[in-house]
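2024-03-11 09:14:02 INFO worker-7 job=invfold-0412 stage=load source=structure_tokens
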């Protein structure tokens, strides 16, 4: 199970660096050093090296600025590898140096270091990496995507010639901006990059806590809040398809993470 936790942690850290680090190479280097130290003190250096290789492969297969060349398949392959690692490798007898001082209790009993790393890896993966999986699913289904109005600003009608600043009336010159692009009137569903991670973390926590009525109410509330935007679809159904595909893929990822934690804790 430590291999699964390290792989998810490496992939999640790489995606967080891609999203938030101003200089990616510094973020990658710092993350690699920290992860290698963690693997060393936990007597799992080889699994951590394998996890770093998996993280590099993920960054190549799932770019953040364009559609994935491999589509949705890297996520499917990762899910199979993670489930296989949890089922077949199980929990180690010791955890190296850190195992000698590791003590973590929960309302459900003692939490081993391997299980804690799996939970941490899943949590980090749900923050940003799951957004890439949802985006790959939307791209694979050719689902309508909202247009960012900030990228579609109108060009000015005329510009002022700097050479005519001393004249009483500025001489207008022809506009040099690129032709305008009409804003898609269907643009909407803002904040998904923040709502998605928060929603997945809540689904994970509420599922593990067996708070199913609260979970159902939260998921129903999301549909109610989004209903006014979805209802403007008319006959196309583009918004409804976008909402359903994105939400269902996100929920499946979070519920799968909860099941993986439950399986590991009870195996």
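2024-03-11 09:14:09 INFO worker-7 stage=emit residues=267
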């Amino acid at each position: 199970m430590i291999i699964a936790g390290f792989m998810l942690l490496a992939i999640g850290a790489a995606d967080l660096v891609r999203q938030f680090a101003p200089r990616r190479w510094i973020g990658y280097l710092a993350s690699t050093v920290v992860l290698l130290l963690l693997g060393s003190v936990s007597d799992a250096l080889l699994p951590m090296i394998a996890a770093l290789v998996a993280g590099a492969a993920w960054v190549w297969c799932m770019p953040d600025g364009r559609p994935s060349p491999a589509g949705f398949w890297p996520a499917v392959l990762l899910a199979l590898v993670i489930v296989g690692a949890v089922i077949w490798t199980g929990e180690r007898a010791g955890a190296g140096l850190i195992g000698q001082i590791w003590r973590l209790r929960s309302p459900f009993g003692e939490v081993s270091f391997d299980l804690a790393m799996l939970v941490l890896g899943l949590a980090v993966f749900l923050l940003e990496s799951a957004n890439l999986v949802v985006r790959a699913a939307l791209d694979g289904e050719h689902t309508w995507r909202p247009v960012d109005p900030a990228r579609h600003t109108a060009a000015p009608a005329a510009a002022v010639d700097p050479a005519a600043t001393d004249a009483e009336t500025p001489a207008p010159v022809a506009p040099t901006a690129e032709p305008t692009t009409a804003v898609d009137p269907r643009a909407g569903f803002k904040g998904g990059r923040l709502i998605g991670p928060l929603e997945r973390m809540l689904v994970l926590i509420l599922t593990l806590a067996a708070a199913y009525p609260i979970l159902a109410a939260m998921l129903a509330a999301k549909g109610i809040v989004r209903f006014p935007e979805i209802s403007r679809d008319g006959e196309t159904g583009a918004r409804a398809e976008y909402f359903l595909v994105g939400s269902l893929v996100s929920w499946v990822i979070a519920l799968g993470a909860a099941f993986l934690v439950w399986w590991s804790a009870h195996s």
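2024-03-11 09:14:09 INFO worker-7 stage=report msg="The longest helix spans residues 238-266."
2024-03-11 09:14:10 INFO worker-7 job finished
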